[in-house]
Amino acid sequence: MSWLYEFDVFRVARPMKCCCLSNLCLYSLASSIVLVASAVAHAQILPDSSLGGTPSTIRTEIGSGRLLIEGGADRGSSLFHSFQEFNIAPGDNAYFINPVDIELILTRVTGNNPSNLLGTFGVLGEADVFFINPNGIVFGPQSSLDMGGSFVASTAEAIGLGDGGTFSAVAPETPPLLVVNVPTGLQFGGQLAPILYQAQRASRSRGLRTQPGRTIALLGGGLDFQGAFLSALKGRIELASIGSAGQVEVTPNNQSWSFDYSDISTFGDLSAILSFFDVSILPQTLSVNPNLTERGITLQASDISLGRSTLFNSQTQTDLTAGDIVVNARQLTMNDGSSLNARAFATTTNDIRGNAGNITINASESVVVEGGIDFGFFSFPTLISTSSNGETIGFFSGIPNGISFGEGGDININTQQLLVTKGAGITASGLSVGDSGDINILATESIIVDDRISATNPNNPTIILTETRGSGAGGNLRLDTGLLRVSNSAEISASSIGEGPGGDILINADTVEVVGNAEVQAGSAVFNPVSVIGTVTFGEGEAGVININAQRLRLESGGSITLSAFPGSSGNGGELRVNASEEVVIDGVSKEGSASGLFANTLGSGDAGTVFVETDELRIDNQGRISASTVSNVAQSSGGVDLKLDRLFLDNGSQILVETFAQEGSRANITVSDFDVILLRNGSLITAEAINSANGGNIRLVSDDGFVVAPLAEDSDIIARSNLGDGGEIEIVAQSIFGLEERVAIPDNGTNDIDASSRFGQAGTVRLNELATNPNQEAANLPDTTGVPQISQRCNATGVSSFVATGRGGAPPETAMAGLLWETFEDVDAPALSDQIEAVPANVNALTEAQGWAVNAFGQVVLTTDGVDALPYAIASTPLCTYP
């Protein structure tokens, strides 16, 4: 037959690999189509005899030429058909007659060949159809559905029925007279043939389309779609690739069907290229099946590959909640501009109040979202996105006129490894009154966000984004993983462009790395944007909060974590909190000179944000930076930097910097506490400077047990000064301060300076408290009474001697007041001697008790062993002992 030959030529000519379906190479199935061409002749649908006295019959309708399928065995509200072969040629139409009171048509193919449904498969009524052929099912470029009910096509061996009955294609029997003839499951055995859909490209004029609120379900031993178009508006699309024997439970659900795969241990693969799957809710579908709750698209397979394909689930001009997109797989790969898109979209002046659907991806091993389609002057990125009131990135852009009060859907991804690269994106947007959805990603091993799409369109970054562009709140972004790496100009961002507040970012990881950029050339221009994790406000909305909990954080080659408020915005900056149990490393600059660092910068009229870091060790090297600044002169809060750590190392021009223009409100602050050591080297800087007439900020470095060290002649400074305003305050409390002196800091002067001066205003305050050398620290008072006096070793202890002590003997009341005029060897705390004094052995070098004192030529008091005549200035001596 020519139609079979043409289809096979298309299959061979199209560029594709032998699909990596786990159970059967799809080429073998497509090749078998040619073999049946001579057998089917004009009789493409051949009934078998398994139904006994109620066989299926075929006739051609006069006038239309379409094939009508009649007869079959009816059991209650179900009608059973059985065929040896079932094929529909391109351009042909085959319709099942739908008798009154029949709600379900169950059809099996018992022969050895696949079914080629390349024309129109129809039902003259609203009955649902279950169609099984264990040898495979093929759809082509002219395939279409024309029916009022749902369509379930499968390569299962049998359909399970109520009360334990089956309708089997491999062991055909007359269907039993059961009390319940509704399908309960699709039973797969050892033969797991795939389902193919091969066309040049998806076309809305053809394809598999049901009436609104119904289901299209394709369940086979592998699914391969080339140019497929599936549409179940306001309904459900179910695509499953089965890889093991077992039963898929099926349940009727308000004129639709639900599926349960708990009995299936493994799954096959699913590939879709240039395909489109749509379950949108349109205004004309509102009155259809209003009680259906399980709307949406479900993909169930092992390895799922989507290339230039779209799963689209929109809610347009209605008050209903759109269905969900659910992907369950071992691996999901999306590329070449593919998209999973769920949105609530107002296309006219009519408002909508329904919510967008959610997107849930469960991939036991990996999710890869990469690349896009580049047309030179524009591009379509590969995208996973939800939105309220339109979409600004990807295939489905629009400028809505109505207002969306509905909320954007959430994106939930659970996997081991997530890779977003080459200009792809994961986005949740709120573009009107409704709030944006959240993004929640759990990747037990790693999340890698990396790279750009192309040199011809470098402004399309690889991104994970939540945003609000209206009065609704931006969604929150949560990432839980072992390793988070953002590199080569990629971004993770939560932004506010309108009145609504931006969302928050929460990251829980073992290691977080934000690294560098890749130079991209486009014509004569060179673009060097940096990698960033950040929250940003462009309008009135508040920027969100960033919380990072990790063991290690590394920012390198221009990588940054940023709170930003852009020029013209009035929203306040948020908070950036880093809790790294081991270390934070900030190192280097990007190729165009952008510093690596932690930033809270406000370029609008709002208050600056604040950076908080708690870690064991913070190392800032090679011009890395921690910065909080504002250019607003009316900001009530100038932001600040608050560090709590054990060790702080700054080297090679690195900075901790706060800057402010604000003339009122709080000053910018830098606080470092609980440190063991702060080491500044090679032109490093801690500064809280004020611009123009603003007052200098405050710097507090406080640790009772810490040290502040700056090696000599390395030009490292601590500065809190102002130009026109007053100088700031610098307070350092530490055990010791080495290498720094209070004086005016001059760039490149080769000294390490502490400076709180003002050029034209009042100088600030510097307080240095070095606990290790402070003479007042823990000063001890001398006792008011002496100890028991020692008996002169020249006297015999007889018990009749006496000693008189008057006052302190010239000693000061406190050790802190002691001068250097008197020197004595007397130990006031020496233990008292008893009456029994041990004899001192003779020794020519032994110390001898002083017998007097004198003043030498230098005015010094000298104790001497000689008598009063030893020196001309002798005043007193110790008399020899005599007995009374």
UniProtKB/TrEMBL annotation:
Q: Is the keyword Signal in the record?
A: yes
* SMART domains per the UniProt record, alphabetical: Haemagg_act
UniProt xrefs under Pfam families: TPS (PF05860)
- Which segment of the chain is annotated as a signal peptide? 1-43
Keywords, A to Z, come to: Signal
Gene3D superfamilies in the record: Single-stranded right-handed beta-helix, Pectin lyase-like
Domain Filamentous haemagglutinin FhaB/tRNA nuclease CdiA-like TPS spans what residues?
A: 52-162
**From which domain of life does this come?**
Bacteria
Cross-referenced InterPro entries? FhaB/CdiA-like_TPS, Pectin_lyas_fold, Pectin_lyase_fold/virulence
Tell me if Signal is a UniProt keyword of this record.
yes
In terms of NCBIfam families, this protein maps to: adhes_NPXG
Mind telling me what this protein is named? Filamentous hemagglutinin N-terminal domain-containing protein
What is the organism field in this record? Leptothoe spongobia TAU-MAC 1115
Instruction: Give the organism's phylogenetic lineage.
Output: Bacteria, Bacillati, Cyanobacteriota, Cyanophyceae, Nodosilineales
